[in-house]
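[agent] plan:
  1. take the single chain provided in the ticket
  2. run structure prediction with default settings
  3. attach structure tokens to the ticket
  4. add a short note for the reviewer (M.T.)
[agent] executing step 1
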Amino acid sequence: QSGLSMLFRKVLKSFSKEELPLYYSLQSSPAFLEMLVNLRAELVTANLTCEDLPESPKNAELSAILGRFEEELSLSYANFSEFQYFIQSINEGKFNQVLHEAVIIIDGYTRFTAEEESFISALHSAGSEIVIGTYARSSDYKLTDFSLSVYTNALEMMQRFRNKFSAQISPVSNRTSDTVHDKLTRLIELETNFLQER
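[agent] step 2 finished; step 3 output follows
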């Protein structure tokens, strides 16, 4: 994190005041440097580039900063993501023999980042059987508008994976549960249904 801040500071100093009329005075601001590091991290996580930012004068300057930062990073510094390297290795078939016979179980997610979803795509392409456990009511899956459910994220993920990977949905119910968590979940479901019916 501190290394990225230092590199952003170096990159900012390479701009003239005319090139960055809005952000030039912030080149030594720790808060601005932290914002740049966080913005870059969000773009990387979402598999986006600086060109994907909406058009505005501020974003044009941010795009110029981020673009020059990436150039500097690729020229002078090692920009290595083990997770991306692993995904790339899977896509290149380096683990096909192992992954073809593997069953991968992912539990407790209701949504995935773009990077995580590209990992799932790579595993799927390698022939792995993937089981994803998530929580939703089977009756809500029949809704035409998933936003009417308290389980919106999980339902949208299931539908997307069904379309993208021909995923099969296998409901599992726990008939003996009567925990505080189950009661609270039921209250939230009832409140959501009540608010949408008003």
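[agent] step 4 note for reviewer: Residues 83-197 form one domain.
[agent] ticket updated
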